[in-house]
Amino acid sequence: MGASKLQRHALTYFGTAGVLATIATGALALAHVWVFNQTRQFDVALLSLTLASFAASQALLTTAVALYVATRRAYIPPPMPPLPKAETAALIPAYREEGRIGQVVREAKKYVDVVIVVDDGSDDGTASEAEEAGAVVIKHPHNMGYGAAVKTLLHAALKAGVKYAVLLDGDGQHDPRDISKFIKALESADLAVGDRFGLSRVPTHKKIGISIIRAVHRALGVKVRDPENGYRAFTRRAIEALLPHLDEVWMGISSQTVYMANRLGLRVASVPTEVRYREAEPSESPIWHGLSVIWTIIWTWLTERPLRTMAIGAAALAASLATAAYVAAIFNATRYIRLTYTALSIVLEVMAVVLIAVAATAYATRRR
């Protein structure tokens, strides 16, 4: 049985809804305070709606944290088949790629010692086609997600003793002839990430989405031109350093890998490569995909240093209490409630509670 969209995008759905509910709470609080200042009476309906929105915002955001942690920590590497010792490997995650995966494997074999394919719970002939083409195939019991397949492949690469591993898609979008370019780049880098811009005809919506994701990365100090490109290569040192820090099991793992490589001080290079887009419709909305990746980046930043996040949460809580005290003091003196400070106090409180919950969760579940 495959994972549901809720499992894939728990943080995206509940987190986005929680942020919107927080904004709505602030707006409702402003409206309620304005009505009170005009009439000198509390609007019971508006007050009830504000409190309901306040409760919903906290419930949604804390649910997002709980579900995200539960789904990500459910990943367990599957049993590995016998793997030949190799210096170079092509790693291919595949899901329902019958009719395409065989050609990709045959081409990739020309440039590496071994091709390893993870069949992520396909219900077609993906696994058998890959095996017939000469790949070592590892099967997931069900559709666990692209990120889970990538992590399984990285574990397999370590078991095979590889020096260099190249990750590429199984649908033919990535040209296996570029494998040698990626391996060459690893002579002076730990991680080589494909750069589709310049050699590919990138659809407009993808250009916009990648630009937004790149801007988020750069705001956090990561300068990679195409952080979402799945065509990339790793040294053994990079795999060993990154694996303990990768908890994403869906599409966000590409950005999470780039972010963590930067944080761990790994050398990152860009490799010009072509992405050959298929005309088939994407399996999910580009908007939800983009939001999912952005939430993954935010989550990774918040959880990599739990004490920092806890400090930010504590500061937000202190600011909320101080703002609420100021609003109370002004009310006692003037009998009017300050609109902006009231809304700010509420938003800060919601943010503080969630940040403290994220920090506590990250600290309690971190791998030691």
Explained architecture:
- With 368 residues, the protein is α/β, with parallel strands linked by helices.
- The protein folds into two domains: 5-73 and 305-365, no CATH class; 88-287, Spore Coat Polysaccharide Biosynthesis Protein SpsA, Chain A (Alpha-Beta Complex), CATH 3.90.550.
- Helices cover 57% and strands 10% of the residues.
- The protein contains 13 helices and seven strands.
- It has a seven-stranded mixed beta sheet with strand order 3-2-1-4-6-5-7, sandwiched between helices.
- Helix 2 (10-39) packs across helix 11 (286-304), helix 8 packs parallel to helix 11 (286-304) and helix 12 (306-334) packs antiparallel against helix 13.
- The longest helix is centred in the first third of the chain and has 30 residues, at 10-39.
- The chain is elongated and about 80 Å long.
